Amino acid sequence: MTRQERATQIWPILTLCASKRQLLVYEDLSWLISVPLHGLGQLLEPIQSYCIANNLPALTSIVIRSTDGIPGEGFIAAPNVPNAQAEVFSFDWSQQSCPLPDNF
User: Fold this and answer.
1) C-alpha span between 37 and 26 (Å, rounded)
2) What is this structure's pTM?
3) CA–CA dist 1, 68 (Å, integer)
């Protein structure tokens, strides 16, 4: 499965969490999609880039480390993580269709 196909798989998980105002730790996402923890960053990057390019809230900001409650070092979509998470939680993701792999 390509990174873009995995991003399409991850998108609905993140938007569901966002609609429920829930943060998601990397370990749980790893388990949900059956991908080793160390491989998640490269799969979240297309989503991060898509959100930046399409002026959407930083959806990947809600994926956090269990140790300190913030995204990993690859997260560059917003300088203020709590504000980014608040924007993600207040956005109506039900009006945003899931991008196809070719959109990433």
Assistant:
1) 7
2) 0.94
3) 31
Strands 63-64 and 24-25, sheet pairing: parallel
Is residue 4 within 8 Å of 46, Cβ to Cβ?
yes
**Which two three-digit tokens encode residue 53?**
């390019």
Which residue, 94, 96, 95, 65, is CA-closest to 81? Answer: 65
SS3 24: strand
| CB-based contact 10:47 (threshold 8 Å) | yes
Neighbours of 53 (CB within 10 A): 10
Torsion of CA 49, 53, 54, 58, to 10 degrees: 40
Determine which of 17-21, 24-28, 36-40 has the lowest per-residue pLDDT on average. Answer: 36-40
